[in-house]
Write a structure and sequence with these properties.
Layout lengths: L4 E5 L3 H15 L4 E6 L2 E5 L3 H12 L6 E6 L2 E3 L3 H15 L5 E7 L3 E3 L5 E3 L2 H9 L5 E2 L6 E11 L2 E10 L16
Parallel strand pairs: 6-9, 6-10
Antiparallel strand pairs: 1-3, 1-4, 2-3, 5-11, 7-8, 10-11
């Protein structure tokens, strides 16, 4: 099953229960639970950016085990050519030409070497490959927009890469800053 919201939180059964209690009180139960791991919750919701905004407003100034709520735009295999193509398309469609951006990559992205073997790319090489063709100003310290790529393990030998493109505030800790429009 597909998901479009990724929630990171402090690991423990109690924190997972607490996080679900807060989600239920902030936005109700209009979501589908796709997977729960010790510090990661994957949900399917109708509008992921509206979900983020409502949760951000609701949790403002409250104690919570939740670190980040990340709306997901697309899910692909963690192969560099697939990730780069989707990330470029989303970035060019969403980031205004005069805006600055950065690429944040968490996890492993793979490529196929000359002998046909699957190999893990170095993070900097993957980021450079993804950035090719995104004709926007790069600002690593204070970007207006972020292209966020995260590898999520789904089963023992299977992982996917999630791709999100939104304003930088979306990818900060849920407790930091005011709620702003994510797109």
């Amino acid at each position: 099953m597909s998901f479009n919201v990724l929630i990171t939180l402090d690991p423990s059964k109690e924190n997972i229960d607490w996080a679900f209690s807060q989600v239920n009180s902030c936005v109700g139960t209009s979501y589908i639970v796709v997977r729960v791991r010790s510090s990661l919750i994957l949900l399917s919701v109708s509008e992921p950016y509206r979900f983020w905004f409502e949760m951000k407003k609701c949790l403002q100034g409250k104690d919570t085990p939740i670190h980040r709520i990340i709306p997901v735009d697309d899910i692909v295999d963690p192969m560099i050519h697939k990730v780069a193509e989707k990330a470029r398309g989303l970035a060019l469609a969403r980031i205004p030409p005069s805006a600055s951006y950065r690429i944040t990559l968490h996890g492993k992205i793979f490529t196929v070497d000359e002998s046909g073997r699957l190999v893990k790319m170095h993070t900097i090489d993957a980021v450079k490959t993804i950035a090719e063709g995104i004709e926007r100003k790069v600002d690593l310290e204070n970007p207006e927009w972020v292209v966020y790529i995260r590898t999520v393990p789904m089963r023992r030998w299977y992982a996917v890469a999630t791709i999100s493109v939104a304003r930088a505030a979306v990818f900060k800790n849920i407790r930091v800053g005011e709620a702003v429009e994510p797109l």
